[in-house]
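Render this sequence as a predicted structure.
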Amino acid sequence: MGKREKSGFWVLAAAACFYPLTWLGKRTYRGVEKLPETGGVLLVMNHVSHLDPPNDAVFVHRNRRVPRFMAKDSLFTVPVFGRILAGSGGIPVYRGSTTAADSLKAAHAALREGKLVLIYPEGTITKDPTGWPMRARTGVARLALENDVPVLPVARWGTNDIWNGYNKKFRPFPRKQVWTVVGDPVDLSEYKERPVTNQVLREVTDLLMTRVRDLLADIRDEPAPTEFFTPASRREAGK
């Protein structure tokens, strides 16, 4: 295994907070050999629980990389946690404001500087009643198309059995199995030869989330739905 990516005080602080949280589950990792040891990489993940960020941060850190999370800007104001998030290289996302493009610029810069960027394209915990990925936002497609870095789909499942954010149930015992599976890099060469239109952004976004969904179907050992669930709020907004 290669040398660990250089970190700093706030990354170590995050590790001190997050590692104990992951002990709530019995972790199983698959496909970790697909994570590049160095250089820019975009991890595209599903989102099922408030425990996902600490779980995913530890997953990346155990594989000797430092995760840069794209997270909604309000999280950066949370006492202590927000300081850790910012200090460890987190990238705030300003939704619905004139600064939305700036959040993508920061992510583009991180990828071009050889960092690992982790994104939850759904933007929040899935609202699909059965936990499958819902219709995602297209910012992930811009990052994937405009940067020459590996784009890896990653599915994680089981954190929702420990802490379900929508029914407010916290069930740490007995310890649950938490799976994290890394898929093969997605070949986007066909799309990179086309103009970046809204249609292309939607196609690439759906392709990436389909790959994540397929990995999740393998973990769950059941067929995935053929369509992405779309919350009423996004149907009304046409997103």
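Summary. The radius of gyration is 17 Å. The chain has a mean pLDDT of 90.
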